[in-house]
């Protein structure tokens, strides 16, 4: 099966993926075991945008499952000579590659999946549209800290309009039945959300009583023009720091997430990094287990 969008999954299927990841986790550790159940499979990584966490965790996940892992990007392929992406995928099919993991600035993966039904496609991020595997590892991390995903009070703060992480995360929260979701950003970075009842431009107000706080990176590479808000104003009004969190949240049971890469000094102050509530490193480690689960479900279903 292809893994293209979060909204293709039901709550029971999300839980199945989480349980698969649980089974891969080595007890009392943050490490996922090697289990070569896909040793007869070959996977091709096609990353047309820079990536560290997503690309490396998919590679580690595939190696843990015993897969043969191949990497190709635009600069190292015949696309430099005019070959189309479709031609590249056709070559992969002819070479017996079982799955393509694709990250692209455009929404190309859906058309490719329709054009090449014999290939399994996995979405590793498409423009500002979606990033389904990231939202799964975020939910998996929350699940490790809260009994029910529907119960926490959620806050997402930062560049809302340009975040593919947010788009998929909101879809995932809908599937698990979460109701208490607040969005916070400068108005110019939240135009698609500012008219909604769950939008709050005041960070201190938005933080009150929250259990799960996710900071989003300012997506400079996706902005069409310069921001009206200065870096100094953004830091003053929207940066999360240790004291602001302690003062505004109102309890000590919250967790802090960030999908990365983090601009420390902008959306987060570095003083949150080593706090017990900061689960960013846990998110990174969970990327391996969740992506092992995605590959397993995609190639064995």
Layout of helices and strands:
Layout: H1 11-24, E1 42-47, H2 53-64, E2 68-72, H3 85-94, E3 99-104, H4 109-115, E4 120-126, H5 132-143, E5 154-157, H6 164-175, E6 181-184, H7 203-207, E7 212-215, H8 231-238, H9 242-249, E8 255-257, H10 280-300
Parallel strand pairs: 1-2, 1-3, 3-4, 5-6, 5-7, 7-8
Helix pairs in contact: 1-10, 2-10, 5-6, 5-10
Describe it.
- The strands form two sheets. A four-stranded parallel sheet has the order 2-1-3-4, sandwiched between helices.
- The chain contains ten helices and eight strands.
- It is globular and about 60 Å long.
- The longest helix is centred in the C-terminal third of the chain and has 21 residues, at 280-300.
- By secondary structure, it is an alpha/beta fold.
- It folds into two domains: 6-129 and 286-300, Aspartate/ornithine carbamoyltransferase (Rossmann fold, 3-Layer(aba) Sandwich); 146-278, Aspartate/ornithine carbamoyltransferase (Rossmann fold, 3-Layer(aba) Sandwich).
- The chain has helices at residues 11-24, 53-64, 85-94, 109-115, 132-143, 164-175, 203-207, 231-238, 242-249, 280-300, and strands spanning 42-47, 68-72, 99-104, 120-126, 154-157, 181-184, 212-215, 255-257.
- The mean pLDDT is 93.
Question: What is the distance, rounded to the nearest whole angstrom, between the alpha carbons of the first and last residues?
Answer: 6 Å
Structural class: alpha/beta
Radius of gyration: 19 Å
Strand line-up of the largest beta sheet: 2-1-3-4
Give the ordered list of helices and strands.
HEHEHEHEHEHEHEHHEH
Number of helices: 10
Architecture per CATH nomenclature, i.e. the level-2 architecture of the largest domain: 3-Layer(aba) Sandwich
Approximate shape:
globular
- Give the overall average pLDDT: 93
Write the CATH homologous superfamily of the largest domain.
Aspartate/ornithine carbamoyltransferase
> The CATH topology of the largest domain, please?
Rossmann fold
- Which percent band covers the strand fraction? 5-15%
Which spans have pLDDT < 50 for at least 5 consecutive residues?
none
Helix content: 25-40%
DSSP strand tally: 8
């Amino acid at each position: 099966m292809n893994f293209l969008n979060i909204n293709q999954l039901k709550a029971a299927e999300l839980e199945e993926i989480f349980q698969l990841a649980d089974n891969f986790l080595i007890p009392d550790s943050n490490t996922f075991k090697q289990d070569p159940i896909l040793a007869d499979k070959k996977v091709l990584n096609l990353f047309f945008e820079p990536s560290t966490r997503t690309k490396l965790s998919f590679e580690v996940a595939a190696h843990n499952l015993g897969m043969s892992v191949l990497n190709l990007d635009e600069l190292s392929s015949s696309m430099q000579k005019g070959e189309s992406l479709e031609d590249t995928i056709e070559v992969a099919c002819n070479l017996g590659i079982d799955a393509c993991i694709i990250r692209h600035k455009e929404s190309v993966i859906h058309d490719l999946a329709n054009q090449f039904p014999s290939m399994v496609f996995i979405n590793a991020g498409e423009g500002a549209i979606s990033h389904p595997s990231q939202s799964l590892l975020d939910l998996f991390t929350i699940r490790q800290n809260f009994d029910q995903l529907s119960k926490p009070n959620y806050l997402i703060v930062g560049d809302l309009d340009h975040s593919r992480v947010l788009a998929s995360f909101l879809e995932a929260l809908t599937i698990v039945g979460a109701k208490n979701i607040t969005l916070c950003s400068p108005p110019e970075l939240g135009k698609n959300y500012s008219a909604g009842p769950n939008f709050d431009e005041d960070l201190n107000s938005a933080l009150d009583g929250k259990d799960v706080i996710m900071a989003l990176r300012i997506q400079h590479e996706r902005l069409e023009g310069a921001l009206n808000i200065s870096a100094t104003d953004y830091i003053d009004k929207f940066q999360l720091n240790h004291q602001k969190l302690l003062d505004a949240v109102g309890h000590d049971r919250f967790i802090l997430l960030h999908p990365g890469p983090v601009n420390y000094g902008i959306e987060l102050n570095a003083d949150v990094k080593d706090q017990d509530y900061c689960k960013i490193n846990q998110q990174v480690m969970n990327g391996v287990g969740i992506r092992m689960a995605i590959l397993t479900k995609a190639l064995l279903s």
